[in-house]
Design brief:
Number of helices: 10
Shape: globular
CATH architecture of the largest domain: 3-Layer(aba) Sandwich
Strand order of the largest sheet: 2-8-7-6-5-3-4
Low-confidence stretches: none
CATH superfamily of the largest domain: Type I PLP-dependent aspartate aminotransferase-like (Major domain)
Number of domains: 2
Radius of gyration: 21 Å
CATH class of the largest domain: Alpha Beta
Largest sheet: 7 strands, mixed
Order of helices and strands: EHHEHEHEEHEEEHHHEEHEEEH
CATH topology of the largest domain: Aspartate Aminotransferase, domain 2
Length: about 350
Amino acid sequence: MELWRDKIRKTEPYIPGEQPEGRNIIKLNTNECPYPPSPMTERVIREYSCGDLRLYPSILCRGLKSALADTYSVEENEIFLGNGSDEVLALCFMTFFNSDKAVLFPDITYSFYDVWCQLYGIPFKRIPLDDSFRIVKEDYFGENGGVVIANPNAPTGIYMGLESIEEIVSANRDSIVIIDEAYIDFGGISAAELIHKYDNIVVVQTFSKSRALAGIRVGYAMADKRLIDALEAVKNSFNSYTLNSLSQIVAEAAARDTQYFRKCCENIISTREWTIAELERLGFDTLPSSANFIFTTNKNIDAKALFEYLREQNIIVRYFNKPRIEQYLRITIGTKEQMEALTAAIRRY
């Protein structure tokens, strides 16, 4: 009898978007930036001394924290860094959600939230979006063990205004509200300014999207110093050295190159609006997006069939076989040339 089998934790893991091996593929399924990182990052990589890899990285991350503090007008002790925003969010769940009350988040949102709740034994409740796939702020005003809002939401791309975010935070002074802003730079206003007004909000962002650094895995949270101290204590109970030294200097360089950052975001927003208009001519109905992706449907075309056809054409988008959204495709905004190839393929279909 293998009794150890009964003692292993069993969980249903998060399933990330496909990462194909081929080079001749138009990859529009994981919301990566279609442009290279800031040229400043290439320079610091070239100048980096490989001999420094023998040393543990700085646990203070002062250079990177300083760059982020300058960017968001916060203090360095109001910033928490982690190995991608997924790690930051996972540590937030473990640190802040410890009551017997349910944590609230939308029924259609980033699917890692319920995975973390199940992994850590956190009670949770999925709150339905309305018929237009929008978050109803009043649904989050009741008793709860915490609130998580992705803004803009994924996979819909819909943005909730800062005033409504503040109302949710204000209505939940006895619990922590996490605002997951992975896509905020493509059309929204960050809630980072609220951390000096409310001590119960945690704003999480990432270098993976607008900073074009998904490969180095850097994410961060901004919050009241007491919340950051609590996060640091939990993180240091696992691993004090979560950010390697090369990731720190690359991320700092990207954070300081604001001109290149803005140009990339502007290009993606422009291409997004062009793509929405082109798809509308082909009979698609696309939700209003403030992200670097769109969520679109066509009443005359089966979404799964189109997804499979596009894959045959070496164009990969994201399909979710879930209630309410099984006739939608989530399409990352690539370069103008990539989106022209996408719309041409759909036109042929």
